[in-house]
Amino acid sequence: MRARAWIPLGLLALAAGYAFLPDLAGRRDPSSARRVPPGRGLVALTFDDGPDPELTPRVLDVLRAAGATATFFVVGRRVRRHPELARRAVAEGHALGVHTETHRHAWSLGPRALRAEIANGREAIVAATGRAPLWFRPPWGAFNAATRRAVRDLGLRTALWSCDAGDWLPGATAGGIAARVRRGLADGAVIDLHDGGQTRAGCRAMVRALPGILGAAGAAGLRAAHLGVLFDLPPLL
Prior knowledge:
globular; eight-stranded parallel beta sheet; 8 strands; TIM Barrel; alpha/beta; single chain
Protein backbone atom coordinates (compact mmCIF):
# COMPACT_ATOMS: atom_id res chain seq x y z
CA MET A 1 0.00 0.00 0.00
CA ARG A 2 2.77 2.39 0.85
CA ALA A 3 4.54 1.74 -2.45
CA ARG A 4 1.30 2.30 -4.35
CA ALA A 5 0.72 5.54 -2.49
CA TRP A 6 3.98 6.90 -3.90
CA ILE A 7 2.95 6.27 -7.52
CA PRO A 8 0.58 9.29 -7.85
CA LEU A 9 3.17 11.50 -6.18
CA GLY A 10 5.83 10.28 -8.59
CA LEU A 11 3.62 10.98 -11.58
CA LEU A 12 2.85 14.44 -10.23
CA ALA A 13 6.56 15.15 -9.81
CA LEU A 14 7.26 14.05 -13.38
CA ALA A 15 4.47 16.29 -14.67
CA ALA A 16 5.79 19.23 -12.68
CA GLY A 17 9.29 18.64 -14.04
CA TYR A 18 7.98 18.49 -17.60
CA ALA A 19 5.97 21.67 -17.20
CA PHE A 20 7.89 23.95 -14.87
CA LEU A 21 11.58 23.15 -14.52
CA PRO A 22 12.44 23.46 -18.23
CA ASP A 23 10.43 26.68 -18.28
CA LEU A 24 12.68 28.22 -15.69
CA ALA A 25 15.73 27.02 -17.60
CA GLY A 26 14.33 28.49 -20.81
CA ARG A 27 13.86 31.88 -19.21
CA ARG A 28 17.59 31.90 -18.34
CA ASP A 29 18.62 30.95 -21.87
CA PRO A 30 20.16 33.94 -23.68
CA SER A 31 18.34 32.84 -26.86
CA SER A 32 15.05 33.62 -25.10
CA ALA A 33 15.32 37.34 -25.67
CA ARG A 34 13.47 39.56 -23.22
CA ARG A 35 15.52 42.56 -24.24
CA VAL A 36 17.65 43.28 -27.27
CA PRO A 37 21.16 44.72 -27.60
CA PRO A 38 21.10 48.28 -26.21
CA GLY A 39 23.08 51.24 -27.41
CA ARG A 40 21.41 51.60 -30.83
CA GLY A 41 18.38 53.68 -29.90
CA LEU A 42 15.98 50.92 -30.95
CA VAL A 43 12.87 49.44 -29.38
CA ALA A 44 10.98 46.36 -30.60
CA LEU A 45 7.20 46.53 -30.85
CA THR A 46 5.72 43.03 -31.08
CA PHE A 47 2.11 42.03 -31.75
CA ASP A 48 0.66 38.65 -30.77
CA ASP A 49 -2.35 36.54 -31.73
CA GLY A 50 -3.16 37.89 -35.21
CA PRO A 51 -3.68 38.31 -38.01
CA ASP A 52 -7.13 39.76 -37.54
CA PRO A 53 -9.13 41.23 -40.46
CA GLU A 54 -10.26 44.24 -38.41
CA LEU A 55 -7.30 44.97 -36.14
CA THR A 56 -4.18 44.01 -38.11
CA PRO A 57 -4.83 46.40 -41.04
CA ARG A 58 -5.34 49.25 -38.57
CA VAL A 59 -2.06 48.45 -36.84
CA LEU A 60 -0.25 48.25 -40.17
CA ASP A 61 -1.70 51.60 -41.20
CA VAL A 62 -0.42 53.27 -38.02
CA LEU A 63 3.04 51.71 -38.38
CA ARG A 64 3.29 52.73 -42.02
CA ALA A 65 2.33 56.31 -41.21
CA ALA A 66 5.05 56.42 -38.54
CA GLY A 67 7.71 54.75 -40.71
CA ALA A 68 8.06 52.01 -38.08
CA THR A 69 8.43 48.25 -38.39
CA ALA A 70 7.39 45.56 -35.93
CA THR A 71 7.32 41.81 -35.36
CA PHE A 72 3.98 40.00 -35.63
CA PHE A 73 3.80 36.70 -33.76
CA VAL A 74 1.00 35.09 -35.72
CA VAL A 75 -1.25 32.10 -35.03
CA GLY A 76 -1.06 29.57 -37.86
CA ARG A 77 -4.76 28.92 -38.32
CA ARG A 78 -5.40 32.68 -38.51
CA VAL A 79 -2.69 33.06 -41.15
CA ARG A 80 -4.40 30.32 -43.16
CA ARG A 81 -7.67 32.28 -42.99
CA HIS A 82 -6.08 35.62 -43.84
CA PRO A 83 -2.87 34.99 -45.81
CA GLU A 84 -3.21 38.38 -47.50
CA LEU A 85 -2.54 40.08 -44.16
CA ALA A 86 0.65 38.08 -43.65
CA ARG A 87 1.77 39.02 -47.15
CA ARG A 88 0.96 42.68 -46.57
CA ALA A 89 2.97 42.76 -43.34
CA VAL A 90 6.00 41.26 -45.08
CA ALA A 91 5.64 43.58 -48.08
CA GLU A 92 5.69 46.57 -45.72
CA GLY A 93 8.93 45.46 -44.08
CA HIS A 94 7.69 43.75 -40.94
CA ALA A 95 8.86 40.43 -39.48
CA LEU A 96 6.57 37.47 -38.84
CA GLY A 97 7.13 35.05 -35.98
CA VAL A 98 5.55 31.73 -34.98
CA HIS A 99 2.95 31.81 -32.18
CA THR A 100 1.94 28.15 -32.72
CA GLU A 101 -0.90 26.81 -34.84
CA THR A 102 -3.84 27.19 -32.45
CA HIS A 103 -2.46 29.11 -29.42
CA ARG A 104 -2.54 26.13 -27.06
CA HIS A 105 -0.65 26.41 -23.76
CA ALA A 106 2.57 24.36 -23.82
CA TRP A 107 1.80 22.65 -20.52
CA SER A 108 -1.47 21.23 -21.89
CA LEU A 109 0.22 19.29 -24.71
CA GLY A 110 2.43 16.25 -24.99
CA PRO A 111 5.78 16.46 -26.82
CA ARG A 112 4.52 15.27 -30.19
CA ALA A 113 1.45 17.53 -30.19
CA LEU A 114 3.49 20.51 -29.08
CA ARG A 115 6.04 20.01 -31.84
CA ALA A 116 3.18 19.84 -34.35
CA GLU A 117 1.76 23.11 -32.97
CA ILE A 118 5.07 24.90 -33.58
CA ALA A 119 5.89 23.22 -36.90
CA ASN A 120 2.40 23.82 -38.33
CA GLY A 121 2.48 27.45 -37.23
CA ARG A 122 5.78 27.85 -39.03
CA GLU A 123 4.45 26.14 -42.15
CA ALA A 124 1.45 28.49 -42.27
CA ILE A 125 3.84 31.44 -42.60
CA VAL A 126 5.87 29.68 -45.29
CA ALA A 127 2.71 28.80 -47.23
CA ALA A 128 1.41 32.39 -47.09
CA THR A 129 4.65 34.24 -47.82
CA GLY A 130 7.02 31.75 -49.46
CA ARG A 131 9.61 32.54 -46.79
CA ALA A 132 10.50 31.04 -43.41
CA PRO A 133 10.25 32.85 -40.06
CA LEU A 134 13.16 33.27 -37.70
CA TRP A 135 11.32 33.95 -34.44
CA PHE A 136 9.09 32.04 -32.04
CA ARG A 137 7.06 33.22 -29.06
CA PRO A 138 5.23 30.63 -26.95
CA PRO A 139 1.66 31.47 -25.94
CA TRP A 140 1.70 33.06 -22.48
CA GLY A 141 5.50 32.81 -22.57
CA ALA A 142 5.28 29.21 -21.33
CA PHE A 143 8.07 26.73 -22.05
CA ASN A 144 8.71 23.08 -21.39
CA ALA A 145 11.31 20.58 -22.57
CA ALA A 146 9.39 19.75 -25.75
CA THR A 147 9.09 23.45 -26.65
CA ARG A 148 12.80 24.00 -26.47
CA ARG A 149 13.63 20.88 -28.44
CA ALA A 150 11.18 21.73 -31.23
CA VAL A 151 12.33 25.34 -31.44
CA ARG A 152 15.95 24.22 -31.72
CA ASP A 153 15.20 21.57 -34.33
CA LEU A 154 13.17 24.02 -36.44
CA GLY A 155 15.94 26.63 -36.37
CA LEU A 156 13.88 29.28 -34.57
CA ARG A 157 14.91 31.92 -32.02
CA THR A 158 12.70 32.52 -29.01
CA ALA A 159 11.66 36.07 -28.12
CA LEU A 160 9.80 37.00 -24.94
CA TRP A 161 9.34 40.59 -23.78
CA SER A 162 10.50 43.17 -21.27
CA CYS A 163 7.24 45.17 -21.14
CA ASP A 164 3.69 43.82 -21.14
CA ALA A 165 1.28 46.50 -22.39
CA GLY A 166 -1.66 44.90 -20.58
CA ASP A 167 -3.98 45.22 -23.58
CA TRP A 168 -5.27 41.72 -22.83
CA LEU A 169 -6.47 42.67 -19.34
CA PRO A 170 -10.22 43.12 -18.68
CA GLY A 171 -11.13 46.79 -18.81
CA ALA A 172 -7.90 47.84 -20.55
CA THR A 173 -8.05 51.43 -21.80
CA ALA A 174 -5.99 53.33 -24.34
CA GLY A 175 -4.65 55.60 -21.60
CA GLY A 176 -3.69 52.71 -19.34
CA ILE A 177 -1.99 50.82 -22.16
CA ALA A 178 -0.02 53.89 -23.21
CA ALA A 179 1.06 54.53 -19.63
CA ARG A 180 2.32 50.97 -19.16
CA VAL A 181 4.30 51.11 -22.38
CA ARG A 182 5.80 54.52 -21.60
CA ARG A 183 7.09 53.11 -18.32
CA GLY A 184 8.73 50.26 -20.24
CA LEU A 185 10.21 52.30 -23.07
CA ALA A 186 13.99 52.02 -23.03
CA ASP A 187 16.81 51.34 -25.43
CA GLY A 188 16.57 47.62 -26.22
CA ALA A 189 13.07 47.11 -24.80
CA VAL A 190 10.73 44.48 -26.28
CA ILE A 191 7.09 45.59 -25.96
CA ASP A 192 4.33 42.95 -26.01
CA LEU A 193 1.06 44.08 -27.66
CA HIS A 194 -1.86 42.20 -29.26
CA ASP A 195 -3.58 42.61 -32.62
CA GLY A 196 -5.89 39.61 -32.29
CA GLY A 197 -7.28 36.96 -29.99
CA GLN A 198 -10.17 37.10 -27.59
CA THR A 199 -9.46 40.46 -25.91
CA ARG A 200 -10.95 42.55 -28.70
CA ALA A 201 -11.88 45.57 -26.58
CA GLY A 202 -8.33 45.77 -25.27
CA CYS A 203 -6.90 45.35 -28.77
CA ARG A 204 -9.06 48.20 -30.05
CA ALA A 205 -7.86 50.33 -27.17
CA MET A 206 -4.28 49.40 -28.08
CA VAL A 207 -4.81 50.59 -31.66
CA ARG A 208 -6.04 53.93 -30.34
CA ALA A 209 -2.99 54.15 -28.09
CA LEU A 210 -0.47 53.10 -30.74
CA PRO A 211 0.15 56.53 -32.37
CA GLY A 212 0.89 58.00 -28.95
CA ILE A 213 3.19 55.07 -28.09
CA LEU A 214 5.17 55.64 -31.27
CA GLY A 215 5.27 59.36 -30.55
CA ALA A 216 6.57 58.72 -27.04
CA ALA A 217 9.27 56.44 -28.42
CA GLY A 218 10.36 59.11 -30.86
CA ALA A 219 10.40 61.75 -28.14
CA ALA A 220 12.69 59.46 -26.12
CA GLY A 221 15.06 59.15 -29.07
CA LEU A 222 13.99 55.59 -29.85
CA ARG A 223 13.07 54.10 -33.23
CA ALA A 224 10.65 51.17 -33.45
CA ALA A 225 12.02 48.30 -35.53
CA HIS A 226 11.34 44.60 -35.98
CA LEU A 227 13.47 42.11 -34.08
CA GLY A 228 15.60 41.27 -37.09
CA VAL A 229 16.86 44.84 -37.28
CA LEU A 230 17.82 44.79 -33.64
CA PHE A 231 19.81 41.55 -34.10
CA ASP A 232 21.14 42.37 -37.60
CA LEU A 233 18.93 39.68 -39.13
CA PRO A 234 16.39 39.77 -41.97
CA PRO A 235 12.64 39.73 -41.25
CA LEU A 236 12.26 36.30 -42.88
CA LEU A 237 14.56 33.76 -44.55
